[in-house]
Design a protein that fits this description.
By secondary structure, the protein is of the alpha+beta class. The protein contains five helices and seven strands. The chain has one domain.
Length: 149
């Protein structure tokens, strides 16, 4: 990964007031609020998209309604992106994948009990899954990005 991009991304992930969400790159607001709804904020890859907008790599997103949410919709060569980085951002960041994979201890994943895994056992998991399904925090994701990408 491009070191300069990584440094900016990690710094933004560590900002204390940054709100984290799931399901979309960025949720602006819930159109039909309920307790089970995604909260306004960004996913970890949404933060990377913000970095790309600020660097002038891509245009700011359009705001669209999808289901119960107003969300950020990024465009790249006529393709909409609501949940993963665009090709332009992937190339700019120096990433091979639209959902970069990192290694994490199996015991850190909720589906595993510490007693069921051997010390040092790891899984290769995409950042989207860590953010959305396993509820890794931005600081936890920032550390993985810093160390592994």
């Amino acid at each position: 990964m491009n070191q300069e991009v990584k440094d900016v991304w990690v710094a933004k992930l560590l900002e204390p007031d940054r709100k984290q969400t799931t399901g979309f790159l960025e949720v602006i607001r819930n159109v039909v609020p309920n307790d089970q709804a995604a909260k306004a904020g960004q996913c970890c890859l949404g933060v990377l998209m913000e970095c790309a907008v600020e660097a002038g790599v891509i245009d700011p997103p359009n705001i669209v309604v999808r289901g119960d949410y107003e969300v950020a919709c990024f465009e790249d060569n006529g393709e909409e992106s609501l949940g993963s980085i665009t090709d332009a951002v992937r190339k700019w960041a120096g990433l091979q994948d639209f959902d970069p994979n990192v290694r994490v201890p199996l015991a850190s994943l909720p589906m595993y009990n510490e007693d069921d895994v051997e010390d040092g056992e790891e899984a290769c998991v995409g950042l989207i899954e860590l953010n959305d399904d396993h509820k890794f925090t931005f600081p936890e994701i920032a550390e993985l990005v810093k160390e592994q990408l």
